[in-house]
Amino acid sequence: MTVEELPTTEARRLLPVLREIADEVGPRAGAEGRVADYIPALSEVDPTAFGLAVAGVDGEVLGVGESRTPFSIQSVSKAFSLALALGADAEALWRRVGREPSGNPFNSLVQLEQEDGIPRNPFINAGALVVTDHLLTTTGDARGAVLELLRAESGNPRVDFDASVARSEAARGDRNAALAHFMASYGNLRNPVADVLEHYFWQCSIAMSCEDLAAAGLFLARHGLRGDGSRLLDRSAAKRINSIMLTCGAYDAAGEFAFRVGLPGKSGVGGGILAVVPGRCTLCVWSPALDRHGNSVAGVEALDRFTTLTGLSVF
Amino acid sequence: MTVEELPTTEARRLLPVLREIADEVGPRAGAEGRVADYIPALSEVDPTAFGLAVAGVDGEVLGVGESRTPFSIQSVSKAFSLALALGADAEALWRRVGREPSGNPFNSLVQLEQEDGIPRNPFINAGALVVTDHLLTTTGDARGAVLELLRAESGNPRVDFDASVARSEAARGDRNAALAHFMASYGNLRNPVADVLEHYFWQCSIAMSCEDLAAAGLFLARHGLRGDGSRLLDRSAAKRINSIMLTCGAYDAAGEFAFRVGLPGKSGVGGGILAVVPGRCTLCVWSPALDRHGNSVAGVEALDRFTTLTGLSVF
Amino acid sequence: MTVEELPTTEARRLLPVLREIADEVGPRAGAEGRVADYIPALSEVDPTAFGLAVAGVDGEVLGVGESRTPFSIQSVSKAFSLALALGADAEALWRRVGREPSGNPFNSLVQLEQEDGIPRNPFINAGALVVTDHLLTTTGDARGAVLELLRAESGNPRVDFDASVARSEAARGDRNAALAHFMASYGNLRNPVADVLEHYFWQCSIAMSCEDLAAAGLFLARHGLRGDGSRLLDRSAAKRINSIMLTCGAYDAAGEFAFRVGLPGKSGVGGGILAVVPGRCTLCVWSPALDRHGNSVAGVEALDRFTTLTGLSVF
Amino acid sequence: MTVEELPTTEARRLLPVLREIADEVGPRAGAEGRVADYIPALSEVDPTAFGLAVAGVDGEVLGVGESRTPFSIQSVSKAFSLALALGADAEALWRRVGREPSGNPFNSLVQLEQEDGIPRNPFINAGALVVTDHLLTTTGDARGAVLELLRAESGNPRVDFDASVARSEAARGDRNAALAHFMASYGNLRNPVADVLEHYFWQCSIAMSCEDLAAAGLFLARHGLRGDGSRLLDRSAAKRINSIMLTCGAYDAAGEFAFRVGLPGKSGVGGGILAVVPGRCTLCVWSPALDRHGNSVAGVEALDRFTTLTGLSVF
Question: How much is the pLDDT for B3?
Fold first, then answer.
């Protein structure tokens, strides 16, 4: 009995669409864009890799292409650390980080200065550092909490940090260190700068596959419920994260992403993108060649095709 | 035979929801926020006014409260001028204005300087001036084209400019004049600055009611089709405008609006907000008391209630 | 009897130095740099022209090279409009414009925005517009007052506006118009923007020679006294202008100018530079080819040689 | 035999002026302004302290008031580290730091971001960090080199670091750390950020008296010659430092300082100011109460009186 013969679930219903996308987009992966090259561990990835997975709110996960190959999730981790951070004293967090789109990267420090060390949103690096700092305070182990969540929700205990990536990031981490010290000068970090940076770099280094990541993100499609039925977030917080993903999830191309994909999504420079169809499913696509904004070229294209084919776009 | 006894249409189905919202939100209109006071014509409006209208894609329009009272549409007009501008040589327009959220107002100026006079998106004032300039070039009468579109789509030939508002805006227009001359210094205006400003101020001065505006915006819910079935925009352009409304439509509170309302929307400092449920309907709410970002307090609350009650939010 | 046989005055004592400089620097004029080309009237000037004049505090003026050829004084006029503006209600002026160096040109609008429409100093364009506005209020005819002062102090009634330059500047004046409207939006202009710009462009268009300009600037070397012995400025105001010339007189190369020349100076994109040796003399050099900051290449070199040869540098 | 009966030297000639200033300004010390309070070691200093010393180019040093009380030299050290840094591979240094005034502190950061990590001048903190980094590369011990120079030129072997100040600065050093990491992200630091910061904080912590500091700075009045007649800097480099002191030496009040004092000067938040009369003498004044720009209120007033009384102002 093949998968298709089983009673139809969301994932199975969508699998043919994924196959069509893989056939269409997969062969072009790597033709455009460039793999991130600021650290060796990322620069050595095959630019033509392509994987795509869907996870239904019932928990079933199916994938096409290299959907089981682990990759560096990088900034996709920010959606998970934010979810965990909102679990304890969310009000305090929102006094320290905004929820509005941020304009271009140039303004990172300028805007921080002008707004007294309060980052515009949790997905720009400065904001993600505040989230990690908050999580470090509430849990004592920010990176550990993120890893634990990803393992539990993906159901894959082998999901793990990639120490070589974490160390390379730290070695190239001056820009993040500048942001962290700058916020510290405004009193907007509670823990030592070095600790916050350490947890942040390790959190970003986590390696996992499209199928793992799609499964792990299902709480965003389930309005806050974890796989075991317990509540990670209340409905409002889940909605909040989805809305921030839609308006701020794709670096300085969030507007373009919103237009093309029309779904909440969070991208990473490892080439992964997690997207959410609230109430129905999550998608995770991976292809390492990036556009100039740091988003996976084939990844965005695949999601664009997905919403076009299924009509699931917001617009 | 009452409206409810007629065969059910989208507008009629939603009318009870509108009534519930009007009962709940209407009485609080004006309790919070302040009416725009930078020009006399706006400052004299009753802060407790409240109107709400829905227009189904079939064209039926129903309203509650002061849904037939004309108000100054102000920046809501930007959605219409953009739609018209995209009708001719859209590619040229997109070379002159971006499509990404802009950060806070201060940064919009920093970015304008840094990005050689190219505004970040068509809804910040600099971007709207470029749109008006483009429309002036392609039509010869930008303000006239906007008025004509609004009259035709609302079916209300009495929709008109408010000369006193337009003149007051011009008299207080130094900030817009600065932006226009600044872009002109980069070669990013084609027409004389004075003409562009004139058309812009008049376009913003148009007065119409919630019902008129909801009807006029239906092409955004109809994927580009006008009321007479002709095509104003192709599907992609309509989707583009909706996505820009979602990410940039509420001044520096676009992220908050996306979270609370979860629909494409465009607000104006006259207190009006136009929102779109693609494929189904448009909503227009009006209440003049504004929050510090320039969005109608009761208007946002009404739309928030609407998506909560109907489940039509994106998230 | 030759000039040298007359009783020695400051100008005569310095004439041999001027001749040496003219021999050395004059032949290289135009070899480096480019003539301002943003308006036709300036772009047509011979890039190899070179003139140099000295005026002693006793009023004697001597020159070498093309020291009697009129050129467009442009921003050199700012020193004179400032002097006149300080003559009436200086305190009010200093509440509207600062006295500190300004950083790079990029920040013109940014800094204005951040400092609520108060320009950093009277020699950046925004500051000069405020000065012109102040002078327009106190005299009713800002450009006329500047022209009258220049004619009287140079003793040359033929010094005049160049209408073609003034009109070209106005036609290319969007950047200045942006600055003016921007300040107006903060309430930092008292007169209509168009009037302020008009007077500013005409003031900058005045044409006069090195000898005229050196003579006209003598009040700065005479601690505020005009040629007829009457007082234009008190000592403190004259000192103030000289100090602003030293720290802000050479656009974004004021630091380099202070190092090389070590004297208060004001340059213009017409290729002229007026320099002051307080208590002794003024110098005016002209050579139209400009460096990338807008300062005359041969002009700066000539003044550099002058202070090196005479030891009159501050440092 | 009193000092006045000795053969007259520069210092002795000026001593009566210093006494007059001390009588006039000294009693008002502390009446205006506030002692720096961001670290305990500085906040505990007596705000009414006042010392003033003059050193002639012949090496004689005389003082009035508390001219022998050591204080924290803070940013005055930047003039000495710059002098040492220019001693080896000055060209390389000038490719990494500019020589122009910087606008206000906010803009220094904007500009750092906009100008690819190149600070505007060596006296803003970012620039001083680059100087320290350069000196660390060329000497292996930047802070040691500065201390050694200050000891040698002051002739006082007890001049030393103040460890408690250095440690307090480091503990409050997030803003400087942010600047350093930011420049490092542009490749504009050669040594580890932590090392550069360490040397910078220790260099700033050096404690010495007005008499020591006036003597130590004499090479700037002697066109580069040290006390033993050897050359620390060539004439051009000495002139360069003096010109940067005049245009950039008093934080965001450099223009005001140039006007009032009219001499090259470098201030520190410990309340000290070193001023230079090229070819003649140096002055050092100390009074800990600061104006809002971080300059000693009584210190600036004393130097203002000095140039007024002696006519030694540039203007």
Answer: 46
Q: What is the tens place of the pLDDT at every residue in B22-49?
A: 999 999 999 999 999 988 889 999 999 9
Which residue matches tokens 């501008």?
A: B85
Buried b (16+ CB within 10 A) or exposed e, B146-163: bbebbbbbbebeebebbe
Strands D289-290 and B34-35: unpaired
Q: Is ipTM over 0.90?
A: yes
For the segment D236-279, what is each residue's pLDDT rounded down to a tens digit?
A: 999 999 999 999 999 999 999 999 999 999 999 999 999 999 99
What residues in B contact A253, CB-CB < 8 Å?
100
Element holding D144 (H helix, E strand): helix D142-154
Residue C45: inside a domain: yes
Does residue C182 belong to the interface with chain B, where contact is any CB pair within 8 Å? yes
Identify the three-state secondary structure at position C301: helix
Catalogue the active-site residues of A: 75, 78, 200, 251, 269
pTM exceeding 0.80: yes
Residue B303 CA to residue A19 CA, distance in Å, equals: 39
Domain limits at A269?
3-310
C315 to chain B, any CB pair closer than 8 A? The answer is: no
The answer as to whether A315 is a domain residue is: no
Among D180, D182, D184, the residue with its CB nearest the CB of A109 is D182
> pLDDT for B90-142, tens place per residue?
999 999 999 999 877 766 677 888 788 999 999 999 999 999 999 999 999 99
Chain D CB within 8 Å of residue A182 CB: yes
Token pair 């802000």: residue:
C248
Tell me which residues of C are annotated as active site.
75, 78, 200, 251, 269
Say which amino acid occupies D117.
Answer: G
* Sequence letter at residue A111: Q
Whether residue D24 is contained in a domain is answered as: yes
Annotated binding site of D: 75, 125, 169, 176, 200, 251, 269
Hey, what amino acid is at A54? V
Q: Smallest Cα–Cα separation from C250: which of C8, C20, C49, C78?
A: C78
Mutate to test the interface with D, among C94, C102, C104 (most CBs of D within 10 A): C104
B197 is a domain residue: yes
Residues of C in contact with B184 (CB under 8 A): 174, 177-178
| More reliable by pLDDT, D87 or A156 | A156
Closest of D139, D118, D138, D141 to residue D130, by C-alpha: D118
**Rounded CA separation C121/A88 (Å):** 50
What is the three-class DSSP state of B54? strand
Element (H, E) at D207: strand D207-208
Q: Taking residues D279-292, what's their average pLDDT? A: 97
Longest dimension (CA), chain D: 62
Distance CA D304, CA B229 (A): 80
Chunked in runs of 10, what are the mean pLDDT values of chain C (315 residues)? Answer: 60 96 97 93 94 97 98 98 95 96 75 88 96 98 98 98 96 94 96 98 98 98 96 94 95 93 96 97 98 97 96 84
CB A248 within 8 A of CB A121: yes
Structure tokens at C233: 């400025």
Query: Is C38 marked as binding a ligand?
Result: no
Test C258 with D264 for CB contact under 8 angstroms. no
d(CA D200, CA D222): 26
SS3 string, A64-114, reads EECCCCCEECHHHHHHHHHHHHCCCCHHHHHCCCCCCCCCCCCHHHHHHHH
Which 3 state secondary structure label does DSSP give C291?
coil
For residue A1, pLDDT over 60 is answered with no
Domain count, chain A: 1
CATH of the domain at A126: 3.40.710.10
Indicate yes or no: CB of B258 within 8 angstroms of CB of A246.
Answer: yes
- B285 has a pLDDT exceeding 70: yes
